[in-house]
Here is the input.
Amino acid sequence: MDAKKVLIIEDEKPISDIVKFNLSKEGFETLTAYDGAEGLEMALGVDPDLVLLDVMLPTMDGFEICRKIREKSNVPIIILTAKEEEVDKVLGLELGADDYITKPFGLRELIARVKANIRRTGMSEIIGADPANVRDFGNITIDLNRYEARKNGVPLELTLREFELLKYLAEREGKVYSREQLLEDVWGYEYYGDIRTVDVTVRRLREKLEDDSSDPKYILTKRGVGYYFHRPE
Ligand code: CA
Here is the structure.
């Protein structure tokens, strides 16, 4: 398997250097950009498997970069934020980031999250095309070979989290899960986020999945409890 390529967009060289060093040690290929405009150009030009994205950057901030990457690509994006403010985290997720890490972060945590977020591409290579990995839920198809969801045969442009959330709920159709439970099971590790992370991801998923996201037919809300998948008639 080819080394996975991680693009690090971070203007603080000591942080960039230590992240680069540790990812290289884990077998990743690393590329670095030290300002926003350069980072965006590389993100769209070098076909990375994952982007680590600082927020406060010269020439263009991380949120703007995130938004621009998402217009063209579904590459997993982890936002590195120096601020504790939750508004930053939620904004990053709204703009299509898959994950965020608050600085200062532990390197083990960072590497664990890089691996978890990159799993989508790794999975499809490991599994191969096994028809048992393609499951139909009415007109929604969950394809674990390609880590892809399709609606009426048309692929949905989902991020890793959106895909995993849909897969989790669809495989347990009709069963209601609380935000806390979803955070634990779908995000899959000790997550510092708050439960609004789940709401934001559900909203983004609905925008891509539903005919009318204000009147959802697939991902339904059980008021005061949580969310569940419903197979339309
Ligand atoms: Ca910075």
Q: What stands out?
A: The longest strand covers residues 5-9.
